[in-house]
Amino acid sequence: MASPRIRKLLSLLSVLWCYYFKLPDDNNKSTLNVLLLPRNVDIVEVFKTRRTRNGDREIYIEKIPNCRLTQDQEYTLSTDLTDEHHINPKKAEFVDYDSYTNYMPTFQLCLKTVVEEVNLRLKEHGGPENERVWDRLVSLPVTPSDGATAGTKVNFLLVETLEELGRRDLKRFQWCLIKGVEGFSSISKGQLEDADRLDTVDRMVESYCGEGAVEITLEILRMMGQNNLADELKEKFPNNV
């Protein structure tokens, strides 16, 4: 029979941290929602579910997780903030993939003043304070920058559009980006090698900015005969930037 230490090592799971920030209101109150999800979760489904539920009221903040947690272990989130704040709940259990159906926050950091960055610390509940399993500085958007908000909306919109393409059509779409479309620079094959839908959208936005990424997506979709999907994207675009 395996020792407790071995069983614990076998139950370690790679973790995907998702941050959704609700910007400060008129009273400077804001909320940072922290989701601890198994790495094999469908991140596109997370985006779609959160967006359906909350619309544009929250902003997604991307951070590299670099963390492994123990299944069914309870954890505590803390911060070094001196500003007035509170974290709910006091402790939370990291559960397996099947337990995630609605992508609700694992922790909520409620702020009562405007904070530009926060250092988040995670440790096993009841464990020594200095034995943290994760420690990361997270920058928070202070004001709803039109450019940043629009960019976030465009990314979500494009991810949702590419989600409608099957694997073969996605490869054709990426092939068009590599070969080049009239009026647009091409994206190198290396940048799109093994790229999923999220990676593809990131490469397009980096290369063409938000509006340009939408324009080339429309062009390629029509080249592929995906006219209905292109029409849907064009109809949504003016209302989402």
TrEMBL record:
Pfam family, one: PYRIN
Pyrin domain span: 158-239
SMART domains per record: PYRIN
Domain FIIND: 1-152
Tree of life domain: Eukaryota
Record's signal peptide: 1-24
Entry-linked CDD domains: Pyrin_ASC-like
Gene3D superfamilies the record matches: Death Domain, Fas
GO cellular component, one term: cytosol
Keywords: Cytoplasm, Signal
UniProt subcellular location: Cytoplasm, Cytosol
UniProt-listed InterPro entries: DAPIN, DEATH-like_dom_sf, FIIND_dom
Name of this chain's protein: Pyrin domain-containing protein
Species: Hucho hucho (huchen)
Lineage: Eukaryota, Metazoa, Chordata, Craniata, Vertebrata
